[in-house]
């Protein structure tokens, strides 16, 4: 089979159809990387890769890395499920129902995530992606000037707000161990700019809580309007790759007992939120 | 029947047994007022008041007032239900699952709330009350000194935090119309001190968000530890009165379709959070 592409939305997301063998061999790796930069979300319908194949494919397109280790040792793949029997992170995963990007409290955020559907939910569970490059470009000049040089604090606390009715002081202190001040505008190495916002953003440095939260909410609402958003309806075997540095994503709510199970791998970040080149993380032996 | 009062826990809550007629006539109003001050929560098991009787009883023990009007005009009684068919405020009521006191964004907070059970939930729906006078008294000297002169900002935004996955900018601006800076220690007119904490507290003025939220969470956790808490398991017809100025309360979660229906009236506040007498009492 050749390498066929089809745009799924005017602003982002492209579907790619090609042979599994070609995906695993890296034959089109350069084309895939280029599309990941340009289109941000790539959909490979029903390719049905197993764990080893997903890892092998991941390695062809970037620096395959272990899952973020903040809950202990990362595995080679990460099982995304709301079912506590499937995933030890299940209880924290409901935060994925809010718009976010991954790794906002890491020095170097994930470059791309690669996720495949093993089981899907009958109701809900779609994943939505928004283009934060386009959202930045679409801002008024006044808003671009307003957020130029402004930083926001991102935290594990903000990510988990409202996920449980009460937070114990011990939980609070634990959530507070993850936090970072990030520019609202990410000036990438390649000269492009994207918005760094979403559920992990807690407050704006130098603004009152009132003004700062208002700004964060207004920007997030702007960036996730339909003209910037692609919604993926999963079929079993679908593989989706997204550029985490130029998108926000969220899952639409689904039930704990829906059976939904995703396998996720990731590519290490290549630059910091300040656009500085980063040493690639070591891939597992 | 005479007037009998039995303590429900060492720190908070008393059960009162007396005749319905005596409650409506105000015969024991003075005793009830005094007990409300001392015990924070008063339980009148299965008195079975209707709306008019509940209003009449309310008037015997304080300044009966209409429900806070922030979601439109208040009625003579307020129907507390998670069912949208029963209450137009149903959607925002899940915030009552978090510890709070009423009226933190009103100039003069409610003095007391009076609630009776018309229908109860089969699972959950208990109401818990914490004594914030005792919680203040029990703090270490270091903590008392730390919070002595601190103020926290309380807001509609903080109350509704996490109640929905995403907040629109429009919803945010509306929630922001309700807010006030309140002392963390309420020095009451009578000389007693209580803690003003709970889910409406958003940040501490003069502290970093990290420190301030940590302090608010730590104080709320302290104030709601079991030695300060009474949990009321509702039976149909129960009437409970609580002193809103010296307690926090929350409902334990129950389902929207549980049928739970409470009738609530309230007594207008008599002092501000700064311990000043309310100049003009809001009268119904």
List the helices and strands and how they pair.
The complex is a heterodimer of chains A (285) and B (284).
Chain A (H helix, E strand, L loop, with lengths): L3 E4 L6 E4 L2 H6 L3 H11 L1 E4 L6 H11 L2 E2 L12 E3 L31 E8 L7 E5 H6 L3 H7 L3 E5 H5 L8 H7 L3 E5 L1 E3 L5 E3 L5 E4 L4 H15 L5 E4 L6 E5 L3 E5 L9 E7 L18
Parallel strand pairs in A: 2-3
Antiparallel strand pairs in A: 1-2, 3-14, 4-16, 5-16, 6-14, 6-16, 7-13, 7-15, 8-9, 8-12, 10-11
Chain B lengths: L3 E4 L6 E4 L2 H6 L3 H11 L1 E4 L6 H11 L2 E2 L12 E3 L31 E8 L7 E5 H6 L3 H7 L3 E5 H4 L9 H7 L3 E5 L1 E3 L5 E3 L5 E4 L4 H15 L5 E4 L6 E5 L3 E5 L9 E7 L17
Parallel strand pairs in B: 2-3
Antiparallel strand pairs in B: 1-2, 3-14, 4-16, 5-16, 6-14, 6-16, 7-13, 7-15, 8-9, 8-12, 10-11
What's the main sheet of chain B like? 8 strands, mixed
CATH class of the largest domain in chain B: Alpha Beta
Percent helix of chain A: 10-25%
Helix/strand/pairing class of chain B, anyone? Answer: alpha+beta
Uncertain ranges of chain A: 69-74
Tell how many strands the DSSP assignment of chain A holds: 16
Could you name the CATH homologous superfamily of the largest domain in chain A?
A: Clavaminate synthase-like
One letter per element, helices H and strands E, the order of chain B comes to EEHHEHEEEEHHEHHEEEEHEEEE
Main CATH class of the largest domain in chain A? Alpha Beta
N- to C-terminal distance of chain B: 32 Å
Fold and architecture overview:
The complex is a heterodimer of chains A (about 280) and B (about 280). Chain A has helices at about 20-25, 30-40, 50-60, 130-135, 140-145, 155-160, 170-175, 210-225; strands at about 5, 15, 40-45, 65, 80, 110-120, 125-130, 150-155, 180-185, 185, 195, 200-205, 230, 240-245, 245-250, 260-265. By secondary structure, chain A is α+β, with helices and mostly antiparallel strands. Chain A folds into 2 domains: about 5-90 and about 100-130 and about 230-265, Double-stranded beta-helix, CATH 3.60.130; about 130-225, no CATH class. In chain A, strands 1, 2, 3, 4, 5, 6, 14 and 16 form an 8-stranded mixed beta sheet that branches. In chain A, a hairpin with a 5-residue loop joins strand 10 (about 185) and strand 11. Mean pLDDT of chain A is about 90; it is low at about 70-75. Chain B is of the alpha+beta class. Chain B has 2 domains: about 5-130 and about 225-265, Clavaminate synthase-like (Double-stranded beta-helix); about 130-225, no CATH class. In chain B, about 25% of the residues lie in helices and about 25% in strands. Chain B has 8 helices and 16 strands. Chain B has helices at about 20-25, 30-40, 50-60, 130-135, 140-145, 155-160, 170-175, 210-225, and strands spanning about 5, 15, 40-45, 65, 80, 110-120, 125-130, 150-155, 180-185, 185, 195, 200-205, 230, 240-245, 245-250, 260-265. In chain B, strands 1, 2, 3, 4, 5, 6, 14 and 16 form an 8-stranded mixed beta sheet that branches. In chain B, strands 13-7-15 form a 3-stranded antiparallel beta sheet. In chain B, strands 9-8-12 form a 3-stranded antiparallel beta sheet. In chain B, strand 10 and strand 11 (about 195) form a beta hairpin. Chain B is globular, with a radius of gyration of 18 Å. Chain B starts with a strand and ends in a 17-residue tail after the last strand. At the A-B interface, helix 7 and helix 8 of A face helix 7 and helix 8 of B.
